[in-house]
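Request: Mind sharing a record?
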Amino acid sequence: MAVYKNTIVTSMLIVMFLLPGIVQGETRHYKFNIQLKNVTRICHTKPIVTVNGEFPGPTIQAREGDRLVIKVTNHVKYNVSIHWHGIRQLRTGWADGPAYITQCPIQTGQSYTYNFTIIGQRGTLWWHAHILWLRATLYGAIVILPQPNVPYPFKPKPHKEITLVLGEWWNADVEAVINQALQTGGAPNISDAHTINGKPGQLFKCPIKDTFTLPVEQGKNYLLRIVNAALNDELFFEVAKHQLKVVEVDAVYTKPFDTKAIVIAPGQTTNVLLHANKRSGSYFVAARPFMDAPVTVNNKTATAILHYVGGTSASDISSFNPLMPRLPLLNDTAFATSFSSRLRSLNSVQFPAKVPQTVDRNLFFTVGLALESCSTCNNGSRASASINNISFVMPSISLLQAHIFNISGVFTADFPDRPPTPFNYTGTPPKNLITSKGTRLSHLPFNSTVQLILQDTSVLTVENHPIHLHGFNFFIVGRGFGNYNPNTDPAGFNLLDPPERNTVGVPTGGWTAIRFRADNPGVWFMHCHLEVHTTWGLKMAFLVENGAGPDQSVLPPPSDFPKC
């Protein structure tokens, strides 16, 4: 144990002195006990997987430059891993969390300590399980405050900050839901409710109205930290009769702008300022899906209640008569597109947008649905999903282990830079809908600049895909509908102040262009954050080489690294 502690301390000192821009902060310790707890929602009680019996799980509080040491102990029957969504994990890929990508899962009765430093990041991120469908209930927020005495770059200064984590609730066991779908070959049953901080609100036919409340004072300003932890649904979010001012997305400051509502994809976070400008009363805070493809979703609305203090107390919400916002319609593509187009990085002297102006590697990835053969399924096939017509096969040990320790036979580093067979991606699909399968990685030299076009396809159906890249932020330099045109579309790219995120929605029947610098060595997962699509294979990984310098290599794994 002493050797392990000395190794960690030495590694952290190396990181603090050699990585650019690092600020030495505090070390914060957390204990996550993964355990079952019976929880009742919309008149249904079931055991769910939780951290420390909390649903949602505890919020991680830290500052930029802090080191987090989080011991996770697994007390449930499922294997577990935790992903710290949006944390860059510079050189500490062993702590990233996706099972069989950067670690073997934590088995029943075992523990693993995630040890990493928050470098050059501040804002709202989140953590969640990254194995099976456990993140349906195993999730929570990460709040990273700026360094001491560093103010927010927006005004007015908030009187109070409130974290709102949006989610989904199934009355059934979610593992049984996806397992049944895989056996029959169809889509899994949709959720029974959406939730705000684990509570569905007052619009459900159940005598017990589990509702989160937000007490506010007239004239005060509030920072709402909003996380979409839903498994499969993009969501509109609105507060009745109140404007929202967007100031941050995915822990990156934006140029502020006012909006009546936001659209937020699974995996994304958005910070907004709310000015409590009413004299009194109560108002619904509402979240409802956005879906502009012919795909069935749970269209039920989750609600919380914002109420002005001095009137009805929070303990007597039955007497509230909240006003309901007029949320965008389920398929309001125009609103979603307009909202996304208004996002711009702050790009100030203190917080510059370091957009790669030149590109070393041009990639074109199709993302979409497909079929795969299944002898036991209905009609002899089941739903699948792929990137460049490759449905990813999960390995039996972690890819990062295989890479660092040169274990052969686990993966190949030959993921294609573009689809093997071009076609009219958003037009008539090809006749062969069967995808290929493989564990293939895309190889990137250290510090190379990458432009990646993500193109939706019409195979089975077009659909919006929120794509999350581990280990990096990226700049969304362009987006559009139809097929990407390499001759004309780059002329419209924003290379000055594009939004910087870790998760981006590829529009239904359209494309998104992102740029990033491969300055973080290791193996980094990229996948659709609709959990059903990840399950079906819409995922891949980048292998980023070590650099030449002493601060440009993956640090050694910790001594308690889980075994497969």
